[in-house]
Amino acid sequence: MSKLLDVYRREWPRVAAVQAMVLGGASLLAGRKNQTSLRALAVMNGMTMCAHQYEEYVDPGYFPGMVNVAIFKSDQPYNYPYNPSSAMCANIFFRWLYIPPMLFPEKKWLGLPPALLGIFQGVAHTTVMPKLAKAKYPYSPGALTSTLLHIPIGITYIRAARKQGGISRGDWVKSAGVMAGFLVFGVAAPNLALRNRNNPYRFSERQMGAYAPGEDSSADGTDAPDNGAIPRQ
Fold it and tell me: Which residue from 43, 61, 78, 96 lies 20 to 30 Å from 51 (Cα-Cα)?
């Protein structure tokens, strides 16, 4: 079981890419007789999140380095406070947020949170992150997918929801509750619970990018395997 978890910890962005393809095909098959624009947009948004995570962690992939250095000012950026375990757990919650509106497209309060989150991602990756990083890299991994896909899909979803019966005050209130719960349990909790300076897992050199410190931070000074355990003395 631990070996399987290690593989998933290293490969979850690639699993997400395959999941995106499965979501697209399954949605078209399941909804071929009663496909709605809201369900189609929800599926597109979910697929975009999978692509977005691939952009952040694989190609170009240096989002973890940007987070630990630019946001947290970490002196141990390979594995603290953000690390492969917290990244894996948090991003599982990110993907789960996109599933309910696919299953229940008539519940607009389930579709609004991921639509709004995608728009926020666009702002964060194009404006907030580069500013915090002080232009060490002028580009934040995730900016391309969030700008070209998340933002237009999110705006289109809100417009479509308004045309299909409107968005009630109750929808907005419930959406706010979903978003708050997601931020607490899906983002804050995994990162707080799994932050540990002795965490045995670390991000790869590629995932650090230009944010990697001058010297390797593993225990014995040798290169550690990508997203694997730090070698012990």
Answer: 78
Strand partners, 201: 229
The string of pLDDT tens digits covering residues 92-108 is: 888 889 999 988 999 99
Cα–Cα distance between 158 and 114 in angstroms, integer? 11
Sorted by sequence, the CB contacts under 8 Å of residue 26 that are 6+ apart come out as none
Sign of CA dihedral 75, 207, 80, 113: positive
The two structure tokens encoding residue 175: 């959406």
Q: Which helix (H) or strand (E) holds 209?
A: none
201 three-class SS:
strand
| N-to-C CA span, the chain | 25
The residue written with tokens 């597109």 in the block is 44
pTM, two decimals, is 0.77
pLDDT for 47: 86
- Measured in degrees and rounded to the nearest 5, phi and psi for residue 221 equal 80, 0
Q: Nearest Cα to 91, choosing from 4, 194, 206, 12?
A: 12
**Angle 104-105-109 (CA atoms, 0-180°, nearest 5)?**
85
